[in-house]
Each structure stands twice: as C-alpha cells, then as structure tokens.
Amino acid sequence: REGKSAPVPLSSLSEHLGFSAVSIHEMVQKLEGQQLVNYQRYRGVMLTAEGERLAQAVVRRHRIWERFLTDMLDFPWDEAHILAERLEHAAPQEVTDRLAALLGNPEECPHGGPIPPQPNTQRGQLLSQLPPGAIGSVIRIRPELPELLQELHALGIAPHAQLRIVAQMPQETVVQRDRQEIRLPAALAGTLWLRVDV
After folding, report:
1. Can you say whether residue 177 is alpha, beta or left, with left for phi > 0 and alpha for psi between -120 and 50 degrees?
2. What is the pLDDT of residues 161-177, one digit of tens each?
3. Strand bridging mode 125-126 / 192-196
4. Containing domain of residue 188, as a range?
5. pTM summary value
6. Does residue 161 share a domain with residue 144?
7. 49-71 and 93-102 helices, crossing angle to 10°
8. Which of 79, 88, 140, 174 might form a disulfide with 61, Cβ 3.0–4.6 angstroms?
C-alpha cells in the first residue's frame, strides 16, 4: 500500500501475494529482524521508517523503468509493467537516476501513479528560500495543519496558485498573485513549495 496506513493483516498479504500464511509469517519475522517492519499480533504489519525508505526506492525504480520502456522503447504499458518488475531489482540506483534524468524526471508512471522523488529531495522549492523576482506555482503545502490551510485559503493561496516573489524579509515574504500583493508571515511562507517557472 502507498502512503501512511493502518497495519496490514497478514491474511491480506497472503491473499494479495499468493503465498501461504506460514510463508508470509516467516517473511515478516525476517523483515522484523532486519528492522524493516513492525509486527503486532492480531493487528498486522507496518513498515518502519527504513522499510518505508526502501519501499519508496523500489516503487521509484519500477515506475521509472515503466516510463523508459513506454516512452523510449515503445512497449505497451501493460507489458512495460511486467518487464519493470524484473528490471527494478537488476540495476543499481545510479542507473535509475540517469534514466530519470534522460526522461526529464517524470512525476508519474504510464498508469498515473506518482513517482517518488529521489531520497533526500523535495519536489519544488520552498517559497521562503526563493529570490525576489522568481515566479512559480504552488505544488505542495506542508505541514497540512487546518489553521494554516484556512489562513492560506483566506489569502487566496492554494495548490496551483501562480505567485511572484516581490521581497524576502526575515519575518515575512511578500508575493504577488493576480496583481495583488500579499504579505506572508515567515510561518506561512515556510509551508509553501513552488515549482519555479524557468
């Protein structure tokens, strides 16, 4: 499963993966020994932070291979999925990174699934770190705290809003949206990620 979720029952893993309950339990014990999952009896299994990192890396490799196979080699997308399952484990990380660069760092696989970013990278740039004159579209708001989201909504700032940075000051950032100047306190400016127009 993608994203944060509740523990996954071992019976669901057994059904989804097509392995016996005994085999699944043995694998979970091995993964728990490697500190990649946490297992709670009668509740299920969840990835640890390290398990999540490794899972995201596999998803990234798989989806980049799918894009390479469809975009560059003209494989049908259903065949690309099957081939990518073999290739995702065959090539080192540097090959994946070069494939991504060759493809223009795509954000989605051929089926529309998001391609996780490289480890330790964020998509876009933090508004509070952009220079005056930069123009970009809001692509992410983090953290998603209700009071911050309400404040941004009241200012007319939401995902896809086009902003131009007018000034950066220690306590605030001044932006322009649709010819209107908006003063954002540092706490708000530090929540907005933009895709900068080049």
Report:
1. beta
2. 999 999 999 899 999 99
3. antiparallel
4. 125-196
5. 0.57
6. yes
7. 50
8. 88
